Amino acid sequence: MRRRLTPYLLVLPGGLWLLLFFVVPMVTMLSLSLQEGDIVSGYVFTGHWQTYADVLVNYRVQLVRSLVYGAIATVVLIVAAFPVAYWIAFHGGRRKASYLFLLLLPFFVSFVLRTISWRYVLTDEGILLGPLKDAGLLPDDFHILGTPTAVILGLVYNFLPFMVLPIYVALERIDPRVVEAARDLYAGPVVAFRKVVLPLALPGVFAGVLMTFVPASSDYVNSAVLGSSSTAMIGQVIQSQYLTSSNYPAASALSFTLMAVLLIGVFAYARALGTEDVMKVAAR
Amino acid sequence: MRLLRAYTWLVVAWLTLPIVVMIAFGFNDTPGRYNQTWDGFTLKWYGRVFALDDLTRALWISLGIALASMLLAGALGTGIGYALGRFRFRGSGVVNLLMFATMSSPELVMGASLLTLFVSAGVGLGPVTITIAHVMFSISFVAVVVRARVLTLDRSLEEAAADLGASPWTTFWRVTFPLILPAVGSGMLLAFALSIDDFVVTNFTAGTTTTFPLWIWGATRIGLPPQVNVMGTLIFLVGVLIAVVGSVRARRQ
């Protein structure tokens, strides 16, 4: 009897913590999004779905923009990360771990601080644009801060390791003899890559997309630090609705919409690729 | 292949560029708070690293919260990770799903929903609510690391202990626990790192409390003082040192 209880006793404290501070808040948020009232006189549950329609009309631009930025960043991440993961997995030799460690270096600097550091790099007369302008390679009024490019660059910068690592893990597992066999059977390097390496690497790419798309499209630090009002993302709206305007029902409705859209996206993606693979990846 | 190699190094350079900038500007002899242009080399900011009282306080608050959340998430996460790795039990699927949900939910939504809970319950925001939030998102990471270690454990060692007359309790503390200790340690380090670096969830659960990332965020508009660069550099060096020592020790074993 005691043995059978053991796993439950072990899981109980942590499980309760997750229940109380993850599940219950989500329910509270859903309920608050359907309430009416204000912070002074309190809120009453009225099943007010109108809030959802209102926020969707008012903030559709930022919501769509966030998803678009997130999607572009994810595509850029795949293209940028794949060659790196490939080279480390197949040509890293004995120093693979060291190369991976180099890629993880940014994580030893606070997220906010390294994003602000980017602003120093990209600022109009900074160390990157300054010399290029002085050399006449760029027009004097060229700027990158405040543009969508800067925001997407920041997203790619901050999430690159999350894309490289899963692709690397998938590539690392490929037996080099499989590729050799393809070559022996007269596949050229391109065909061998496309028919052998790429399909085996895909689960890693899928995992990378899962790990980068959700945080990238819900991020608000990059667009706040590197962007301008014309690049405002949904996260910034939610943040200011909660912390500046204290408009809790609208802010809750917005967060819930964001969560729902991202979840639907993730599940549709999982369906399209077969749930099996995604759960396997998720279990890792 | 040389092209790929050059590209990889280019990416590494690109990733480290902001770090180099951060470290360099900690040595900048800037006259004012606008630490954006290079005015010559100095070491004076290292001498005055704790000269800004509110920044220093923010750093201590961050360290305190990170320590508390590391210990709590370490204990709670180890329990879950050990149970999932060792026992088959009804409901383990739910626990797995819950962990996956906390790890894949947007931070923004977790922070926002905790804020609605605390506001609805009338709980005042501060270091305690920040710690509660940090423990919440760290538990799963600790559990995953510990579970992975428990799954690869050689059970014959425990059976040997039992054969030699050790009770289950003794076996756990004298045999199993020392074997999973490295995983518990790395899980706890991970929890510490997640906590001290967190901005999004903290921003929602802090109220008027200021942690290190929140202080930096608040100061961006008026310009970051060089002390931030110095502290960032020191945190970076300590983190890298711990990681390098850890991996060297792991390789030796």
Structural write-up:
- The complex is a heterodimer of chains A (284) and B (253).
- With 284 residues, chain A is mostly helical.
- Chain A has one domain: MetI-like fold, CATH 1.10.3720.10.
- Helix content of chain A is 75%, strand content 3%.
- Chain A is built from 13 helices and two strands; from the N terminus they run αββαααααααααααα.
- A two-stranded antiparallel ribbon of chain A has the order 1-2.
- In chain A, a hairpin with a 3-residue loop joins β1 and β2.
- Chain A starts with a helix and ends with a helix.
- The model of chain A has no long low-confidence stretch (mean pLDDT 86).
- Chain B is mostly helical.
- Chain B folds into two domains: 80 residues, no CATH class; 171 residues, MetI-like fold, CATH 1.10.3720.
- Chain B is built from eleven helices and no strands.
- The radius of gyration of chain B is 22 Å and the shape is globular.
- The chains are: A mainly alpha (284), B mainly alpha (253).
- At the A-B interface, α1, α3, α4, α5 and α9 of A face α1, α3, α4, α5 and α6 of B.
Quick tags:
heterodimer, A: 284 residues, mainly alpha, MetI-like fold, two-stranded antiparallel ribbon, 2 strands, B: mainly alpha, globular
The helix/strand class of chain A is mainly alpha
CATH superfamily of the largest domain in chain B: MetI-like
Low-pLDDT runs of 5+ residues of chain B are none
Count of discrete structural domains of chain B: 2
CATH C-level class of chain A is: Mainly Alpha
Q: Roughly what percent helix of chain B?
A: over 70%
> Taking Cα atoms only, what radius of gyration of chain B do you get, to the nearest Å?
22 Å
